[in-house]
Specification:
single chain; Rieske Iron-sulfur Protein; 10 strands
């Protein structure tokens, strides 16, 4: 009976060593997490890379910035990094808000916290749209 118990402990310990690092890695901050936008960012909407921005409710993440087409050639840009744990937020076009899938924080289109655990707003950046060149420029801070 002692041998059986020793083998169970061995397998349990080995399983724990394999599961814990994977679980901890899933809680880590996004590798896309970066510093706040400091320079200007120009997005060419004729490029397939940014084609989602040609539709109302479309969004793209560029580095640590999320840009959203809110309709009628209006665009908003916010930090894409949740202020709670550094995960990437997602734009929910049906709700017209930003959601952090890691812990459930919700932010308004102005960046303010609508539901925690995040306690600080997302940084908001000024945007301009040039209909002639079909470019969106995001002004860094």
């Amino acid at each position: 009976m002692e041998r059986r118990k020793a083998l169970q402990q061995l397998f349990l310990g080995t399983g724990t060593l394999m599961v814990v690092p994977a679980a901890l890695a899933s809680c880590s901050k996004s590798s896309n997490a970066g510093a706040p936008l400091t320079g200007d960012l120009t997005l060419d909407l004729t490029s397939s890379k940014y084609s989602q921005l040609t539709q109302s409710g479309g969004s793209v993440i560029v580095g640590s910035t999320i840009v959203v087409n809110t309709g009628s050639d209006n665009f908003i840009a916010l930090s894409a990094i949740c202020t709670h744990a550094g995960c990437l937020v997602e734009y929910q076009s049906s709700q017209k808000d930003f959601y952090c899938p890691c812990h459930g924080s919700v932010f308004s289109t102005s960046g303010s916290v609508m539901r925690g655990p995040a306690g600080s707003p997302l940084a908001k950046y000024q945007t301009t749209y040039d209909a002639t060149t079909k470019t969106v420029t995001v002004k860094g801070s």
